């Protein structure tokens, strides 16, 4: 924690995160069964997701949500940044 009460990671964010509990699917390159996810929060650059079950997330995958939940896009390419149990942090590319 810094003196301002914000964690160091919050101070270093380039884009503001918006809390959001929305559902989506993670699609894998190997075309295995999609995994349901909840979007916990997201920004223009990435998101924090909660996987419906514990698994080791691959380095890259697609996140699919309803178009009205992420603008006009139906799917976004994601790069894994961190994983803690069922929660993962991703950046969009």
Characterization of the model:
The protein is built from one helix and six strands, in the order αββββββ. By secondary structure, it is mainly beta. The radius of gyration is 14 Å and the shape is globular. It has a single domain (16-92), classed as Thrombin, subunit H.
Q: Which helices and strands, and how do they pair?
A:
Layout: H1 8-11, E1 18-27, E2 35-42, E3 46-51, E4 60-64, E5 75-84, E6 87-92
Antiparallel strand pairs: 1-2, 1-4, 2-3, 3-6, 4-5, 5-6
Task: Give a brief rundown of this model.
The chain is 4% helix and 48% strand. It is mainly beta and 93 residues long. It has one domain (16-92): Thrombin, subunit H.
Low-confidence stretches: 1-9
Order of helices and strands: HEEEEEE
Strand arrangement across the biggest beta sheet: 1-2-3-6-5-4
Shape: globular
């Amino acid at each position: 924690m810094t003196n301002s009460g914000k964690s160091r990671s919050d101070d270093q964010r380039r884009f503001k995160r918006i809390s959001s509990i929305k559902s989506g699917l993670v699609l894998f390159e190997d075309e295995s069964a999609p995994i349901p996810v909840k979007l916990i929060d997201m920004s223009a650059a990435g998101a924090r997701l909660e996987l419906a079950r514990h698994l080791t997330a691959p380095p890259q995958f697609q996140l699919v949500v309803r178009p009205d939940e992420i603008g006009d896009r139906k799917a976004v390419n994601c790069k894994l940044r961190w994983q803690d149990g069922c929660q993962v942090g991703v950046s969009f590319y």
